[in-house]
Design brief:
The structure holds 2 protein chains of 2 kinds. By secondary structure, chain A is α+β, with helices and mostly antiparallel strands. Chain A has 7 helices and 8 strands; from the N terminus they run ααααββαββββββαα. Classes of the chains: A alpha+beta, B alpha/beta.
């Protein structure tokens, strides 16, 4: 939308456009500011769509935006490397929904037409609780969120232990793939490190692999590669991103039947109205079903049986 | 004999918003608008169906916060005041538009609907709409199910299992108190399922819940019938999957019904269109312009350009046509599946936010009315059913574990865990852990200590509403969601510290009990 077109709209209409576009700070803008911000935003979007970057570790808050340059270093552990089967194409679960009205309508449930109003500011929340912990949460089949807090006594311990090496050590998150193992600190299938700026913080981690089990250590990595662990997270299993290869014996049915029912229930819907995707799902199903080698590769997952 | 079933599921929910400390409070309008535009119109539809002998089945969530608000005397009185103002406004509108017949007929429609709403609310149900819904349940037309106690998104509570369990247990107890029987079904908030959460449902006596389509399709082992038959979790609780095709017919921006050009335009409201002098008494105090609910235009076309006046009669014809189209497609679907499933009758599960019907899609309740009638009178292929009834017909189902999933954008937890709202979890988790710590440290408390412990549990539950994170994400009324989140964190932490240090401030405790009065029967021992 051009600036001149925007200028002709009422403030309410502009607010609505801004809301849909997710323009930050819109509630505090006057009409002129809305027009110029939206015009800039639309320009940026066109430019942005031409060179979309991916694969970086996302930083979660504005405060951390300054540290965005700090990208993850993936250091694969050479020991006990497991050969992974090629990941199945991930069905873009609910990707078609982006084009639907569901969010918009859900949002209007809370839409009263009123602009944002400021409230008397509550006192600020505590930044942390003096704990020594790291907590891992699954966001989707590929990404997890982690927050942590290391207290000063634990840092003092690290300083005492590492002595002169302390100043040369880096604060990192070490992300372990511990699928199907009782993790003892040494037997992960693989791991990678992410350098982090602070002992109190949070991060989005690109795990990249659905249906695998992970945990994260936070600690100091010494120049020789060794690590002083400050705290270890809970473990999570990333959600499944596609159909299971396991089919129950008792319920085994003809492959023809699978195809018919699955194409109907999954393919058409998730693809929005795209017939191609429905076709792609069907093709993949056929591949899955006809490829005898796939069946039985489902690893034993204790996580699915708790 | 029918070849398959339709389970229409309406999920009615609003977060607990009640501010006795103010004479009027903007966000309470969420409730008042939903009563006028959704809950009462749905009750009207159900009444009409019963009166005309149309056999229908609808499954409906009434979440504990919504039940609490609908039964709250203060909010009931405030609703009467609210609808009274709307009646007054619509009468003025009839006068104002007397020279413009194309608008005048709509003004008359509003006055009649508002008057009827007041009559339904006050005269028929004595200010308590729960009575209405309970009545339809008691005659077997409506199956009311429950939901997380405050609509907490459970997959992000996996690390604090006592808190996840409490969301289930508190809700089930609240349901029993309200409806005098145990709930059979459970709406997982936002359809948020993680493997294992069904154990809490099992423990609470729940027979079934719902997941989004991929929750079932990605189950292990792969379910034979896809999303068209329930599966049993290992716990024995049944999971029903959302049907994509019927959901798309309502939600798709290309083919979806609510965007039809005949339907009423949501965003054009006289709260913004009319002179301040005239409209001031009907918008928020201090002259903050807001929607009044009186809207005169139809969608007309995409964009914000020219709008045509709304024609309610024409919109009704369109709603009937859409109901016919919906039924036609379900019949096709059922016929196909019935064969594909080797003669087993499929269940098509079509869940929607109840507030879609009437609020944004103004004609939505009429669509449901026409749909129920067409299903009953016009054909024999498909019947409406509740999940409980389906389980009675088909008690044997495949055993499988659904996948972690939700019905939010992208299908997992991202809506409630992203840049705008991820800061809350550090505090949510800590409060949950502290609540369990308190319960362990002070078992069987009495007197003021017991009251403080129960209030801490209420603050924790209110803090966990998924609505706050959702609002922060979507960007409408964010300041309020942030205020509520911080307010409950502070409230909880203060109670925690006072309890631990044995210095409970009764004045403060009383104030919190007065404001956050949900769950009068709260027993903090569930956190143990």
């Amino acid at each position: 939308m051009k600036k001149s077109e925007l200028a002709e709209k009422t403030k309410q209409e502009l607010m609505e456009i801004a809301r849909k576009a997710g323009l930050a700070g819109r509630s505090k803008m006057n009409k002129d500011e809305l027009v110029s911000s939206l015009a800039a935003l639309f320009k940026e979007k066109i430019a942005g769509s031409l060179k979309k970057a991916g694969g970086k570790q996302l930083v979660s808050t504005k405060r951390q935006a300054a540290t965005r340059a700090l990208t993850a270093k993936k250091a694969q552990l050479p020991a006990r490397q497991k050969i992974k089967k090629e990941a199945l194409v991930v069905l873009p679960a609910a990707a078609g929904k982006a084009e639907t009205w569901q969010e918009k309508v859900e949002d209007t449930k809370f839409y009263l037409g009123a602009e944002e109003r400021a409230f008397i500011t509550d006192k600020e929340l505590p930044a942390g609780y003096g704990d020594n912990r790291i907590v891992l949460m699954a966001r989707d089949p590929h990404w997890a969120y982690v927050y942590w807090e290391i207290n000063s006594s634990r840092i003092d311990e690290a300083r005492r232990n590492l002595k002169s090496v302390f100043d040369k050590s880096r604060l990192i998150l070490r992300v372990y793939d511990i699928t199907s193992v009782e993790f003892d600190g040494t037997n992960a299938h693989s791991c990678f490190d992410i350098e982090i700026p602070n002992v109190l913080g949070n991060w989005y981690v690109n795990l990249g692999r659905p249906n695998m089990t992970f945990c994260i250590d936070i600690g100091y990595r010494m120049p020789d590669g060794g690590m002083f662990v400050l705290s270890r997270s809970n473990k999570i299993t990333s959600p499944r991103g596609t159909f299971s290869e396991v089919s129950d014996e008792e319920w085994m049915s003809s492959e023809e039947e699978y195809k018919k029912i699955y194409a109907r229930s999954g393919g058409a819907g998730y693809a929005g109205s795209s017939a191609e995707l429905a076709e792609a799902v069907k093709k993949r199903l056929e591949k899955e079903i006809s490829s005898g080698s796939v069946r039985g590769l489902e690893p034993k997952k204790s996580s699915h049986n708790h | 004999m029918e070849k398959g079933y339709l389970a229409l599921v309406l999920h009615a929910h609003l977060p607990f918003v009640r501010h006795p400390e103010y004479d009027t409070f903007l966000e309470e309008k969420w409730l008042y608008e939903a009563i006028t535009e959704t809950y009462i119109p749905l009750i009207d539809v159900f009444e009409g169906l019963v009166r005309d002998g149309v056999d229908f089945r609808i499954t409906m969530t009434l979440t504990p916060p919504l039940i609490a608000m609908l039964q709250d005397p203060l909010l009931q009185q405030r609703y009467v005041r609210h609808i009274g103002k709307l009646i007054e406004l619509s009468e003025k509108e009839i006068h104002r538009t007397r020279q413009q017949p194309e608008f005048n007929r709509t003004a008359v429609m509003y006055r009649d609907k508002f008057r009827s709403a007041l009559h339904t609310f006050v005269d028929k149900y004595d200010l308590n709409l729960i009575r209405a819904f309970k009545g339809f349940q008691d005659i077997g037309k409506l199956e009311i199910i429950t939901c997380g106690a405050t609509h907490g998104f459970l997959p992000l509570m996996e690390g604090v299992p006592k808190a996840a369990r409490a969301q289930v247990v508190v809700a089930v107890e609240d349901y029993k108190r309200t409806f005098g029987r145990a709930p059979r079904g459970f709406w997982l908030p936002e359809c948020g399922y993680y493997p294992g959460v069904d154990e809490y449902l099992k423990e609470a006596g729940i027979r079934y819940f719902f997941t989004d389509t991929h929750g079932l399709l990605y189950a292990v082992p792969r379910p034979k019938y896809g999303a068209f038959a329930p599966i049993y979790c290992k716990s024995g609780v049944a999971a029903f999957g959302r049907d994509q095709e019927s959901s798309k017919q309502v939600w798709s921006s290309e083919e979806g019904y609510p965007g039809d050009y005949c339907y009423r335009e949501f965003y054009r409201d006289i709260g913004f269109d009319l002179d301040m002098d005239y409209i001031a008494p009907y918008i928020h105090n201090n002259g903050i312009r807001i929607h009044t609910g009186v809207k005169y235009y139809r969608i007309t076309g995409s964009g914000f350009g020219h709008k045509e006046p709304y024609d309610h009669a024409k919109a009704m014809e369109q709603a009937a046509e859409h109901a016919g189209n919906f039924l036609f497609n379900r019949k096709k679907q059922v016929e196909y599946l019935h064969d594909a499933m080797g003669g087993r009758r499929p269940i098509i599960v079509s869940p929607y936010d109840a507030e879609l019907f009437g609020h944004w899609w103004y004609e939505g309740p009429d669509f449901i009315n026409y749909l129920a009638r067409k299903i009953y009178y016009d054909q024999n292929t498909i019947k409406m059913i509740t999940p409980s009834e389906y389980l009675e017909i088909y008690p044997v189902n495949q055993v499988a574990t659904p996948s972690l999933s939700s019905w939010g954008h992208k299908g997992y937890s991202e809506v409630w865990l992203e840049g705008s709202n991820d800061w809350i979890y550090r505090h949510l988790h800590k409060a949950a852990e502290r609540m369990t710590e308190l319960a362990g440290r002070f078992p069987n408390a009495e007197g003021i200590l017991k009251r403080a412990l129960n209030q801490a549990a209420r603050e924790l539950l209110l803090l966990q509403s998924s609505d706050w994170a959702f609002i922060m994400k979507t960007g409408t009324m964010v300041e309020y969601a942030v205020k509520r989140t911080k307010g409950h964190i502070h409230g909880f932490n203060r109670l925690y510290e006072e309890i631990m240090e044995n210095r409970i401030d009764e004045v403060y405790l009383k104030e919190r009990e007065w404001k956050d009065n949900i769950f009068p029967d709260m027993d903090y021992n569930i956190y143990l």
